[in-house]
Amino acid sequence: MGHHEYVGLVHDKLNEPLRFMVRFIRELGFRPVLLTDVCRKALHEHFYSKEDIDDLAIVVPKLNVPGIAVPSILEELKRRSINLEHCINVRDPLSDTFLILMDRLGITFPFLEAYRTCRVKPIARTMLHKKNLTRGQFAVHSITNPERPTSMSLPLVSKPITGSGSHGVALVETENDWLLSLQAAHARRGPDDFSIAGFRPRSQVLLESRYYGTEYEIDGYRFQGATTICALGFKHHNFSEIGVREMGGQTYYPGNIPAYESADLRLVKWVHEILDALNYETGVFHVEAMAKGDHIELIEVNPRFGGGGVTEIVHQLSGVDLIAECVRLWLGLKPDRVPAVSGTKSVFYLVQYPSLVGYLRTIRKEGMYPFPFRQGQSVTARWLPLVTEGLQLDYKDREQYLGELHIANVPLAVEELEHVVMSLQDLLRELSFVEEVRRDPDLKKSS
């Protein structure tokens, strides 16, 4: 590819990954075109000059509503005579807009089909069933139909058709839960209805069997069918009236901890089979799975780097920057780094969320702080803030990460993770890494 080709970047958050990707795309010799609904003033204050905004940013209303965003983007691209050769999206809530935009532009590139397969979840489920790589049941269901499919027994999990993460995920254990899940899906419906690969994300949900066991995550990349694992991990989710929320976990470099070796070998073999079955030839991945005994079930394949503090942890463990590799592989370039053993064998992490509706008055700066990890054991922990002061808070937002606390080289057994995570969550809040206020100061929203 030449040095003047345009690369679209669909994004709606002014955060460090976005700043890095804009800079890195330029370093690779391409011209990034930011497709966003962030206001021009905020873009200018964070990292764009006014000239750059006029030249390389297309600001549209409501980026997560394809019926509004896509026509506006198409109009601006035509007006500016910009011909996109590639386009990147690592923001799960924008999957619909991204896929519809690619179809309207007629853009094709090798990673796009793998991305579509993973983001439109029923496609991935169907492919895995054909390869006998899942024992679970699934069904696509209209949210206007109150009758639960006879093929789906309780308990089950209801998920959005597209996207990822815990947003919109509901655990259905009773008939009342079933009706509440349909009501919640109705409440999430946007102003437009559309079809992607024959499915209707606004008016359908994906129903899946509920899996039990230990939840694992696998981070790495593929290049021409060869799988490179950079980190493995297991984590704990909390199920409450708010919904499903990740509370913490432990990530480690594969093979670094002898007690995990047999589980590591199973996970690595399994993820290679899964990616083969999904025709995932090249690209960064963040895979989530549930394992019980020797059996492993896929939760989802994310065709991107992990969120929150995942990339920081992976880099610490393996030396690989998955954000950079994501961009390189998305654009069809070779990976730049291979993982290597470092002095960090494992990282235990806790996620902090809002506890109220209001705003974030203060948040501690990134740094190393003493932390009472266990009774009589004080460790040095790294606090990683993920948002900025003034952010509007909502404790019901299951994916509003405020920050993470990372503790290196304190390996835990799988069976003790839940107890340690939940016992330290209250302590994390007591140590006041963030200060929350219940009223809205009318400060600018940031992230």
**Portion of residues within helices:** 25-40%
Strand order in the sheet with the most strands: 13-12-9-10-11-14-19-17-16
Distance between the termini: 33 Å
The name CATH uses for the topology of the largest domain is: D-amino Acid Aminotransferase, Chain A, domain 1
Total number of distinct structural domains: 3
Spatial extent as radius of gyration = 22 Å
- SSE-based structural type: alpha+beta
Average predicted local confidence, pLDDT: 91
Main sheet, how many strands, which sense, barrel? 9 strands, antiparallel
Query: What is the global morphology?
Result: globular
What would CATH call the homologous superfamily of the largest domain?
ATP-grasp fold, B domain
CATH class of the largest domain: Alpha Beta
Beta content comes to 25-35%
Count of separate DSSP helical elements: 12
Poorly predicted regions are 443-447
Overall strand count: 20
Concise account of the structure shown:
This protein is an alpha+beta fold and 447 residues long. It has helices at 16-27, 40-46, 50-56, 66-79, 95-105, 110-119, 121-130, 175-188, 261-277, 310-318, 322-330, 417-430; strands at residues 6-10, 31-36, 57-59, 84-89, 138-142, 156-160, 170-172, 204-209, 214-223, 226-239, 244-252, 283-292, 295-302, 346-352, 358-363, 367-374, 377-385, 392-393, 403-408, 434-437. The chain starts with 5 loop residues before the first strand and ends in a 10-residue tail after the last strand.
